[in-house]
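So, is this right?
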Amino acid sequence: MTHLTSAPRATARSWVALAVLALPVLLLAIDATVLMFALPGIAADLSPSATEQLWILDIYSFMLAGLLVTMGALGDRIGRKKLLLIGAVLFTVASVAGAFATSPLHLILARAALGLAGATIMPSTLSLIRAIFLDRAQRRLAIAVWATMGSLGAAAGPVVGGWLLEHFWWGSAFLLNIPVMVVLVILGPILLTESRDPNPGRLDLLSVVLSLVAMLSTVYGLKTLAAGHSTSTSLAAVVLGLVAGAVFVRRQLHLPSPLLDVHLFRVRAFRGAVVGDLLSIFALVGSMFALTQYLQLVAGIGPMQAGVWLLPAMAMAAAAGFLAATLVKRISAAVLVTLGLVVAAGGFAVLFTLTPGSGAVPVAVAMCLICLGTGVGMTLTNDIIMSSVPPERAGGAAAISETAYELGTALGTAVLGSILAAVYRTHLVAEPAASAQVSPGALEQAGSTIAEAFSVAAELPAAAGQALVTAAQTAFTDALVVTSVLGAVIMLVAAGWAATTLRGVSATADLTERADH
């Protein structure tokens, strides 16, 4: 059943501790957005293939999503503060390795290490917030601050990173992480109080392996299937991932101390919030992957200017969390989340008529609507997730929340990114102006990515090069419209899901029910 609980109020020290916990959220948001804007520079310097480009983006999220559950359980055992600080040090080392990568493989491995380090950080921040802020209304405000720092990081990343990329090499985007981590390592031991589960049980190593195999195999198979590569291998990977996932879930149901408490998914509101988050991030990140490239390679805007064009959207996302925390006092969470996702779908609809000559304005308007809608929705769903468990079990709930976020990120870049690449390649080859002036071999090479098309065009005679650039920009825009339609559909599906599963959720009581009702 759901009941009201009398919880102590947060102190001034609690709010200062929140500021420290917001630092790694800021860092990871900066890291994600900077890399998107650095991709053209990476492509020019390291010449990764289309698949390698996707792996450079994806591997971080794959590792993070695959290890979050394990790290959430580990934090419950060794202490969430300790795990957070270990992760900060590891993230700094991995950032240096990424900055000085000399090949696509080197960069992919560095990104994998960043994912491992990030998996130690993210469950700790949200679970520490749950442990520090016991009052529901104060916790919702704290989560809004936590989410806002992510939005501010996403806003600052393109602007600061864009300036770095215009004055230095792309590796400077990785070095940007280091000052934030240094501050966390210095202030964390002073301001944060340790939090752990007093009776966590044994860490099941077989469950760790199963969760990682399930995540990596499934997402890898989906990514390669969408790209049209090695169909038999891709299907085998998906089957392996699903089988490993089924065995993992079955094992959790019978363990006295499971790595993941799958019984939480019996709670309708918890299940609705987690799946809603995953679908929202799936669509959001898939669009960001394409829109940043559109701004730079189609609209012809530099990295820093492209970041400035996205600032209003990031400001909208930052304000959305506080708006949600205020409105939920008068309007139900189910209604607010549903309306937010419908607004986000409307943002995708703005992109349906995009052309190569549309410029940055429709992109900025679309992103404002998308970020406003998802910002309102995700503030409330994160609050619902963390209010579904007592503080001593916060690590597991935080890990599930972050796993949904990172899995959505991985699937967005993998599935929608692969669909974007496939549609781009198909439309480029079909462009009559390009096929008439460019050799089949050069056209095939240009079909790997739009950045590669620019490189190929630079080596051709002026007329042929310009024809190839124009054809590539048209094909890429067509592909972006296709992914925007898919994004709108995904948001509408998420809205329907939220309306059904979140109805009747209390805005004041912690949720302690264990079954649907």
Observations:
- The first helix runs from residue 12 to 46.
- The chain has a mean pLDDT of 82.
- The chain is about 80% helix and 0% strand.
